[in-house]
Amino acid sequence: MSQSTDGPPRVLILGGGFAGLYCARRLAGANARVTLLDRTNHHLFQPLLYQVATASLSPADIASPIRWVLRRQANCRVLLGEAAAIDPDARLVTLADGSALGYDYLVVALGVSHAYFGHDEWAPLAPGLKDLRDALDIRNRFLSAFERAERETDPAAQRALLTFVIVGGGPTGVELAGAIAEIARKAMPRDFRAVDTRAARIVLVEGSPRLLSAYSPRASVRAYHDLERLGVEVRLDTHVVGVDSHGVTLDNPAGKRIDAATVLWAAGVRASPLGARLGAPTDRQGRVIVEPDLTIPGRPEVFVAGDLARVTDPATGREIPGVAPAAMQMGRHAGALIARELLRAPSPPPSPALPPARPSFVYRDKGTLATIGRARAVGSVWGLAVAGYPAWMLWLLVHILYLAGFRNRIVVLINWAWAYITYQRGARLITKE
Amino acid sequence: MSQSTDGPPRVLILGGGFAGLYCARRLAGANARVTLLDRTNHHLFQPLLYQVATASLSPADIASPIRWVLRRQANCRVLLGEAAAIDPDARLVTLADGSALGYDYLVVALGVSHAYFGHDEWAPLAPGLKDLRDALDIRNRFLSAFERAERETDPAAQRALLTFVIVGGGPTGVELAGAIAEIARKAMPRDFRAVDTRAARIVLVEGSPRLLSAYSPRASVRAYHDLERLGVEVRLDTHVVGVDSHGVTLDNPAGKRIDAATVLWAAGVRASPLGARLGAPTDRQGRVIVEPDLTIPGRPEVFVAGDLARVTDPATGREIPGVAPAAMQMGRHAGALIARELLRAPSPPPSPALPPARPSFVYRDKGTLATIGRARAVGSVWGLAVAGYPAWMLWLLVHILYLAGFRNRIVVLINWAWAYITYQRGARLITKE
Question: What ipTM was reported for this prediction?
């Protein structure tokens, strides 16, 4: 599995998300032996993950095998495995199975996960949404809650089964809350006999004074009103202080306790733990504070890209957000720098003593969009605020185009068209108990 | 959850497969309170399950929520739960969670599973294919085998990782072997760098002297040759005498041992254990030997339908095969008889002392088809032998039509068209480890 030190320089990319994949693609044709390592066999179109969690799409609609995506790139191999340790001095990555991979350039793009603010015991009670397994887990939980409600005879227990609490008012929380409200109100009522699914209670809890805090204040207000119209209770300035198997406890005296069978977690950010072992400074969430060129201090051969990298935009002084376009741009930036240096000096690889002068990473903000239920979205595009139906059409267009390169776009489009016309959800399957 | 004894007669259907679902549908409009109980929330189009196992289709393409299928049938409710015991004297079914459901008519359509011929310890080593969970398990195993082979440096271990043994030469075994051979030879070669997936060894082991023993001898010969052309080694008259984590042991002295990382089980039939608790005679596989009207002796209110019923065709003297059309026809027959009696005598329900004269179940054999890889099939339709490309076109047409009533047919058709044109498989996802 390991590669000899003879031959073209070895570029090792950890992670097959947007940053890792776009870095690998940028290295197509370069005189390098590229290895992309990921612990799953697929690249995931993460912005649509909530649609798998809410039974609109199937896993295969938003994921493609990484080796299939890169099949034509002869200088790149794809390995299924998990990085366990990095030794920057020896330029060696050790895998969970004990094997090791050497490198001349390393790109760490391992992403972030959700965080429970020091309450990891809440994780099994309130699952987060980061990969396909999470999405199927959430789908099973919320569909099962309706099934159990249909069989429940105790009114209080039935009420708890029809109560859904979503913690975190970022894009994921907003999109989950909107989608669940819509399914309960529109797609399900006719299927059930004993319960009225339209009576389901959906509560979105956000600790800050507004939803979508990374968006404009105007978008936040619009999202709030759109969710209220869908019947979602939005609780701002409210923190969760307890999660148990019967619901959540809040710090808000007005509604301290909510009995709910389903609690979903869409809050907090925790960086992949390997980031902290690079020897570079990290922020409170564990993200690696990188140099302007995305490398770590004193190691010009080690790049960090994607959500794991904490980058401050020199133009605005603001932090670059953890969104898909930023990850793609960082991946491409790292790939371009490596490709350029390989052209100039195929070997030996650059020495830490002589870091070459490199261009800084510049983030191009094309905008952000979040959907709220059916045919509504909020956000900004090239600096312009957008909302409502036009924003949703734009969201649809952008996501269909982004799925290009994969063959799933026709199937996804049909699924969406079907869901839009009929309010039905095609993937309402409980696949485990 | 239980229903009062007042009101229209209660019809309880156990199982939401073809027999149970078609029985429920036949009771639409009847003066009855119909309950359909299933341990999953979805009806599964089982003939295409192997396509989920071999990464052609997604679970949602071949499954629909039962309550969605029956949403317009006001006299029918759908419950998610597992029947644990049946008390025919008390006319009561107890569920796994301890609750109970009474009935005036009972239709037991719980189906069959695969059997390991007294070697249940083989089950975790050689998974069978009966539900979506099995299909995803098999998909994960065979995709993971290629991933592990790509990283393996020991030639013997790599060889074992690229060896796939399928036990059982019925339709499921034949279809699995053909599909796996085709993926390895056509879809995967370009994606891998260290292994040549075209060198994969696929062995199909069958205990009897021919494949597809329920089909005509001509179809068996054709299937054999079609599989050989795809590079599948077919071993007839051969039994598996041992399964371990490194492969299988056969009773054939010529090739006693096959080292294989992936062993799939497509042999044997074992009836749902509840069938034996009805107090009716059962056959060696545990299937219930029913009266000509599909009821059990002395209990005109208890029907058994689908694969769980053992029915001999009075016309041919042959056993009616465990295929989807037979299950649908049995379900409809039971539903029709119940509907007719409810029209005549809405209450009280029929008494065992006075069994009414009822028409016998008559099986209409419309034919059977099995696909072998891409664009090939064998079987018979209305008594005519068919094979090759025309048979495959027929198979495609029949399955698309059968999926009607569900919305998945367009998506399935696109997936198939894509797979046919490009040899690619859209659902090549490993979703758990």
Answer: 0.86
Quick check: A151 and B1 CB within 8 A? yes
CB distance A407–B428 less than 8 Å? no
A96-120 pLDDT, tens digit per residue, is 999 999 999 999 999 999 899 999 9
Q: How far apart are CA B227 and CA B223, in angstroms?
A: 6
A95 touches chain B (CB under 8 A): no
In this complex, is the C-beta atom of A157 within 8 Å of any C-beta atom belonging to chain B? no
Q: What are the structural domains, with CATH classification, of chain A? A: 10-39+81-114+270-344 (3.50.50.60), 120-267+367-422 (3.50.50.100)
Q: Which residue of A has its CA nearest to B414?
A: A411
B191 in reach of chain A (CB within 8 A):
yes
Residues of A with active-site annotation: 175
How many A/B residue pairs have CB atoms within 8 Å? 128
Where does the pLDDT of residue A352 fall: very low under 50, low under 70, confident under 90, or very high at 90 and above? Answer: very low
HEC-encoded secondary structure of chain B: CCCCCCCCCEEEEECCCHHHHHHHHHCCCCCCEEEEEECCCEEECHHHHHHHHCCCCCHHHCEEEHHHHCCCCCCEEEEECCEEEEECCCCEEEECCCCEEECCEEEECCCEECCCCCCHHHCCCCCCCCCHHHHHHHHHHHHHHHHHHHHCCCHHHHHHHCEEEEECCCHHHHHHHHHHHHHHHHHCHHHCCCCCHHHCEEEEECCCCCCCCCCCHHHHHHHHHHHHHCCEEEECCCCEEEEECCEEEECCHHHCEEECCEEEECCCCEECHHHHHHCCCECCCCCEECCCCCEECCEEEEEECHHHEECECCCCCCECCCCHHHHHHHHHHHHHHHHHHHHHCCCCCCCCCCCCCCCCCCCCCCEEEEECCCCCEEEEECCEEEEHHHHHHHHHHHHHHHCCCCCCHHHHHHHHHHHHHHCCCCCCCCCCC
| Statement: residue A355 has pLDDT above 60 | no
Do the chains contact at B408 and A426, CB–CB below 8 Å?
yes
Closest alpha carbon within chain B to A406: B426
Asked if the C-beta of B157 comes within 8 angstroms of chain A's C-beta atoms, the answer is no
Tell me: the pLDDT tens digits for A366-409? 888 898 887 788 988 888 888 988 888 888 888 877 765 555 56
Q: Which residue of chain B comes nearest to A33, CA vs CA?
A: B193
User: How high is the mean pLDDT of chain B?
Assistant: 90
Is the per-residue pLDDT at A351 higher than 60?
no
How far is residue B252 from each of residues A205, B233, B236, B238, measured CA to CA in Å? Answer: 65, 14, 10, 6
Residues of B within 8 A of A132 (CB-CB) are: 429, 431
- At B155 the pLDDT is 95
- Of the residues B34, B42, B193, B433, the best mutation for testing chain A's interface (the one with the most A CB atoms within 10 Å of its CB) is B193
For chain A, say whether B381 makes contact (Cβ under 8 Å). Answer: no
**Is the Cβ pair B418, A432 closer than 8 Å?**
no
Q: Say yes or no to pLDDT of B423 above 90.
A: no
Hey, is the C-beta of A41 within 8 angstroms of any chain B C-beta? yes
Of B132, B407, B422, the CB nearest to A426: B407
